[in-house]
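Severity: low
Component: inverse-folding endpoint
Summary: output formatting inconsistent between runs
Steps to reproduce: submit the following structure tokens with default settings.
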């Protein structure tokens, strides 16, 4: 029997915490094998076949719905009570542990801000017929929203395969039951960004990502995904805090990094100054005029 509760754009919002590297969380046996060498400790990228996922999570899980602002759509998402693996992985009070667990079971507040922004700002023109990547997808809300808004292809990527198998894929499959998009138009990936861009050569019109720039040490790998997987006319829409205490990253630092190390240009779409400032920025390849110092 399915259990459905109704909620309105409110979720389990987490805070990014730095973690004492000496405190190691036990690694569940169903996680990817991890190389522990300091230069290559990140999990390799893999594609995950949704047919390998336990179908009982979809048919027997406890489901909530989240009403999407300014639309007639409600996103179905699986309750953590239906998922024993999230409890195993999140026993520590740390939301993120570098190269082991990157926070995929939480829904970060930046995700909700980006969802609301996309719904209020011409979503049909942005998504109909488009190829979309939900990068650092976690629960998959951004990619699922793009499906409802008319995307033609949607791929999902998160660092931990335990997240993809036990929360992302069930959420997507449940929502596809209400959509016309064929399941084969969705693909799922886990692992590090560097090897993701090496594994997957697909080009996307839109890359959606939220709360993924807290760790400045990963900027080079994130940039490689943008360079290798974004269509020349495409755009990245990124939501994040202006600064992540204890990690050193944030929107200002990332924009500076892009300016110094890439052929991308950025523009600010939305800013909230309450508490720690949060921003939504758009990232595109530089145009010929912008390279020459002229306005686009």
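Observed output (run 2 of 3):
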């Amino acid at each position: 029997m399915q259990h459905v509760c109704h909620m309105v754009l409110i979720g389990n919002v987490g805070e990014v915490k730095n973690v004492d590297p000496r405190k190691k969380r036990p690694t569940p046996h169903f996680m990817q094998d991890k190389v522990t060498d300091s230069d290559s400790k990140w999990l390799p990228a893999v594609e995950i076949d949704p047919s390998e996922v336990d179908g009982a999570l979809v048919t027997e899980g406890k489901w909530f719905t989240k009403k999407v602002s300014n639309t007639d759509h409600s996103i179905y998402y699986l309750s953590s009570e239906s998922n024993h693996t999230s409890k195993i992985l999140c026993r520590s009070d740390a939301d993120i542990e570098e190269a082991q667990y990157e926070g995929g079971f939480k829904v970060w507040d930046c995700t909700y801000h980006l969802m609301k922004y996309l719904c209020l700002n011409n979503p049909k023109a942005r998504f109909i017929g488009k190829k979309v990547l939900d990068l650092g997808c976690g629960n998959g809300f951004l990619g699922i929203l793009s499906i409802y808004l008319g995307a033609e292809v949607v791929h999902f990527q998160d660092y931990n395969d335990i997240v993809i198998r036990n929360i992302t894929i069930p959420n997507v499959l449940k929502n596809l039951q209400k959509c016309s998009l064929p399941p084969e138009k969705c693909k799922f990936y886990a692992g590090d960004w560097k090897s993701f861009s090496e594994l997957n050569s697909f080009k996307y019109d839109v890359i959606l990502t939220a709360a993924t720039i807290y760790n400045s040490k990963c900027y080079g790998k994130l940039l490689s995904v943008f360079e290798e997987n974004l269509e020349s006319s495409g755009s990245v829409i990124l939501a994040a805090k202006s600064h992540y205490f204890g990690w050193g990253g944030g929107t200002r630092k990332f924009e500076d990094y892009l300016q110094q190390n890439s052929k991308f240009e950025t523009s600010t779409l939305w800013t909230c100054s309450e508490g720690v400032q949060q921003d939504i920025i758009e990232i595109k390849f530089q145009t010929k005029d912008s390279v020459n110092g002229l306005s686009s």
